[in-house]
Amino acid sequence: MMRSKRRMTQLVAAFTVLSMVFLAACGGGSSQASDDQVLDIGMIVSEPPSLDPAKAQDSQSGHILRHVLEGLVNIDKDGNPKPGIAKEWEVSDDGKEITFHLRDATWSNGDPVTAEDFEYAWKRVLNPDTGAIYAYQLFYLKNGEEYNAGEAEADEVGVDAVDDKTLKVELKQPTPYFISLTAFYTLLPVNKDVVEENGKWAANADTYVGNGAFTLDVWEHDSKIELKKNEDYWNADKVKLSKINVPFNQEEQTAYQLFKSGKLDYGDKNSLPVDLIPELVEKGEVETKKKLGSYSYIFNLEEEPFDNKKIRKAFALAIDRKKIVEDVTQGGEAPSNGWVPWGMPDPANGEEWVKQHGQYQKSSAQPEKAKELLEEGMEEEGIDKLPEITLDYNTDDSHKKIAEALQQMWKKHLDVDVKLQNSEWKVFLEKQSNGDFQMSRQGWLPDYIDPMTYLDMYTTESDQNKANWHNEEYDELIEKAKSTNDQKKRSKLMHEAEEILMEEMPIIPIYFYTEFILQKDHVKNVIYKKDASFDFREAYLTEE
Amino acid sequence: MAIPAEKFERAPKRAVDIETLRRPSLTYWQDVWNRLKQNKLAMAGLFMIILLVAMAIAGPFMQPYTYYEQDLGDGKNISPSGGHWFGTDELGRDVFVRTWYGARISLTIGVVAALIDLIIGVIYGGISGYRGGRTDEVMMRIVDVLWGLPYLLVVILLLVVMGPGVLTIIIALTATGWLNMARLVRGQVLQLKEQEYVMASQTLGASTDWLMSKHLIPNTLGPIIVMLTFTVPNAIFAEAFLSFLGLGVQAPVASWGTMINDALVVVLSDEWWRLFFPAFFLSLTLLAFNALGDGLRDALDPKMRK
Amino acid sequence: MLRYIGKRLLIMLITLWLISTLTFILMNSIPGDPFTSEKKLPESTLENLKAQYGLDKPLPMQYVVYMNNLIHGDLGFSIKNVNRSVNDMLADGFPVSAQLGAQAMILAIFAGILMGTVAALRQNRMSDYSLMVLAVIGLSIPNFVIAPLFQKYFGLNWELLPIAGWGNFDQTILPSIALAFTPLALVTRLMRSSMLEVLGQDYIRTARAKGLPPIRVISFHTLRNAIIPVITLIGPLTAAILTGSFVVEKIFSIPGIGKYFVESIINRDYPVIMGATIFFSAFLILMNFLVDLAYGYIDPRIKLGKKEA
């Protein structure tokens, strides 16, 4: 009996060991390409939904698109436009007409890049039959919005290829930032002949035709993309990488481990588990960069008690932003002093916008003043008890932490109990846009590099004004700023508008974003730009 | 060889009082208890469960902290020490208090979900297997349909229609939980009902209820108990998944499931205590349930009766 | 028998139709649509988008169009992944998920049956207890914890196996084991329990008393009778595991179909929701059918599809 028991135990043990050995033995060696200018990046989380500029809809696709297609201009380190396919351009005095002069460049199939490709690409974005998500990025064009809504003809749209190398653009209003906008992925060109012949040209690597610094060499769906240097690129001499490998890793934690093991050379926040950020930032393993982005909570002005300005301000003043960034997010973020985020240049002088105005709100909490305002506000409303207050956020570990911290601050400083409610992303968005909330989280990234992208969203007309806040003076200031081409005047008007916004407080800005960069020491000259894009065009690797 | 039907005579129902053929049922449970008592492992399991429940009740009061109180300064991520027995989390909250507060939620959810699965699953599966034929066909296709529907979709809809709340959580947890149990019981009953002793009992005129409760279900208890011990952790993790959708417990309240979920980072960092304690007590709970379950199975097994 | 199978196939189709119809109703009743985004789109753009995917038509009409395409084997195009057909997505990803799942299932079933049998034969002894502890650990540590731990130790620290990715066999080892954990625990525990059940039966005692060697008793008599609960559960479990695991595939960056079941719903990608659901359901229904057939084979006394008892 004793013996058979032992045998059984041995059998199990043997089986376990054997299977491990067998499994391990089957593992072959991994192959590492020996070419020294091959960069492995870990920023792409999953299959890019589309690499057709008209259909692309996320920053992930944008990272790839910017390297396989090149627009009229590129954005430089400081956020200013520099020549791309357009070697130069002129703007008319009223700011409503721009003429781009194109250089000689070719598509990866050998065709020349012409002004007509741009005209075609932009009209294709606006064409109602295309169903382009980001069509609104071209609503600045004369009749752009009308064409998209089926109220104007394609010919009436303000973009025209005068000849092969000249593109004339007519704008609805003076739009100083339109030139930099042409670097945005929706405005990238497509090869007219290729697209007309095959509507699905962008679905696979073998039918993809680009004009960028790299070509789309391999696209294994749901698995990886490989970019190869485009030898015919007009500026190919500057391009040093021979290949960029882009494996898709959905899990930040996985990407981070791959980075640690040397399988990845470069990564951003998508290669970093949120909870690990504080530790790594402190150790200096991760570099932080200012990112244009504003984290905030919006009030619903149509719901009690936040229809009252004093109560809104009381809640805002009870927040210790400094604690939030130093002890909760811990990624080098900055407490917001206004709504327009750091990094945004002031159109008047190109200096940081946030340094051109006073502290609209302080970094630390002001409990006494908050308490006072709350009491005054409640008196104004004739209530002695606040209704039940719920704070909405979409499911995410870092949002949850921040919400929990806010909840405690309100409890401590105002003695108010706030309920937290998280929801799945689209349920959350529906609630927000239906006005079915009291306080709701909002993170906002810019559409283009100008304070206007943060300010025109709070006009009465705007679709993005989820706070249901209306202020005539504010609307007027924005309208005025939009109709002038004088950058100094625009800047002044926009500053005034932001001051009203912060005084009325339909939103509580909490902090300004940072981007996190993980890079191996041998990676040089990758540029992180103000439009949150990464430029690998001139990157190179040194000997390890 | 066929015997003409008229030669058979239907046995009168309860012609013999079957009760007298068995031992008095009063002693049955006493019997079970006596046998269970002799099983040291099972008793250890039972004791452990009682201890865990006691800690869930008393634990949150054993330290001068609350589950929600934060210390954003130096109080974050403290490793276990005299002040904080299980350390603190990333917002400076006491892990000891949170673990035992979470135990209340997770233990309740685990046990309630298991009980509901047990009741629905056994009845449904029992009927389906026993009746067989078309009833079985229809009942099992309903199971297939419920199984095939995307759970995530069902839960989102449930949440939108009913709003978050305890009832919604229970419905969401049991909406599909009992399906496995039902199929398991049905499979067993299909097999058992063809066995000789069942036929014998049938021939003696035993009613369906009698057959079910005295023969079929008791003989399926082994797999049922195993399945139940699996339902507990499943429900505890399902609750964490529901929290993800905004349906589970709301922050800052934590359950073991959400604590384990949130503490995943420790795989790569040093704050092992945030994952270890909830996971350890969850394992302990399961171990206790499994030990008790095994002992219970042995104790209930009529064949083991001496 | 053939008639029974024919009848069952018909019922399977009806079940499938029911599932797809219910799913169609469910997905159209939850808040949000494919184009709900943080930056609200202008009305005109939304209308254009909806028109392009036929979402501007009334729901009953959308349903008829979908069902008609479905009958012709066309699952439509993904809305999120522009220009990818759902048929292609499933065809590309399924072999990956199936390979991973099959490896995990084989591991779970064989090791589980073996371990369960051992535990039953050694009931209430040390090996039984240690296997119970092992199973409990397998249950209480979910694969979203196991998987990163595997990556950290086997991949990063000891450099024995790749951390993530797909293509070579060595990349399948860690995910297969991570995926096999829970089923392995389940099979082990179930097998133990039903083995005990059968071991107590008279015919086993008789067989043992006759002096048949234990191995023979186990394989010819016991296993056959004890395996029914295991088979019952393995059916749906196989369907679930072969159609991919969201968590494991995500953590190991594996291009399987597991993610479609979750992400299609998060994205409200209607055609993918339908396609994934129908695919999984067909698999599940088929597996449950096979389980029923297996019952009759394992224990010929079990008769399905005959008149009610």
Automatic annotation (TrEMBL), chain B:
This protein's major location comes to membrane
Membrane topology category? Multi-pass membrane protein
An example GO CC term for this entry is: plasma membrane
A GO BP term, please? transmembrane transport
Residues covered by the ABC transmembrane type-1 domain? 103-293
Q: Where in the cell is it found?
A: Cell membrane
- Give the PANTHER family listed for this entry: OLIGOPEPTIDE TRANSPORT SYSTEM PERMEASE PROTEIN APPC (PTHR43386), OLIGOPEPTIDE TRANSPORT SYSTEM PERMEASE PROTEIN OPPC (PTHR43386:SF22)
What's the source species for this entry? Answer: Paludifilum halophilum
Per its UniProt record, what Pfam families does this chain match? Answer: BPD_transp_1, OppC_N
Check the record and name the PROSITE patterns matching this protein.
ABC_TM1 (PS50928)
Q: Which family does it belong to?
A: Belongs to the binding-protein-dependent transport system permease family.
The UniProt keywords, alphabetically, are: Cell membrane, Membrane, Transmembrane, Transmembrane helix, Transport
The source's superkingdom equals Bacteria
Q: Which residues cross the membrane?
A: 41-62, 105-127, 221-247, 275-296
What is the protein named? Answer: Diguanylate cyclase
UniProtKB/TrEMBL annotation, chain C:
Query: The ABC transmembrane type-1 domain covers which part of the protein?
Result: 94-291
Whose protein is this, by species?
Paludifilum halophilum
Q: What high-level taxonomic lineage is stated for the organism?
A: Bacteria, Bacillati, Bacillota, Bacilli, Bacillales
| Gene Ontology annotations for the cellular component aspect, listed alphabetically | plasma membrane
Q: What kind of membrane protein is this, topologically?
A: Multi-pass membrane protein
What does the similarity note say?
A: Belongs to the binding-protein-dependent transport system permease family.
Highest taxon listed in the record's lineage: Bacteria
Q: Which UniProt keywords apply?
A: Cell membrane, Membrane, Transmembrane, Transmembrane helix, Transport
Q: Which GO terms describe its biological process?
A: transmembrane transport
- Which Pfam family, any one of them, does this sequence belong to? BPD_transp_1
Give the stretches traversing the membrane: 9-30, 100-121, 133-153, 173-191, 226-252, 272-298
Q: Under what name is this protein listed?
A: Peptide ABC transporter permease
Compartments (UniProt record): Cell membrane
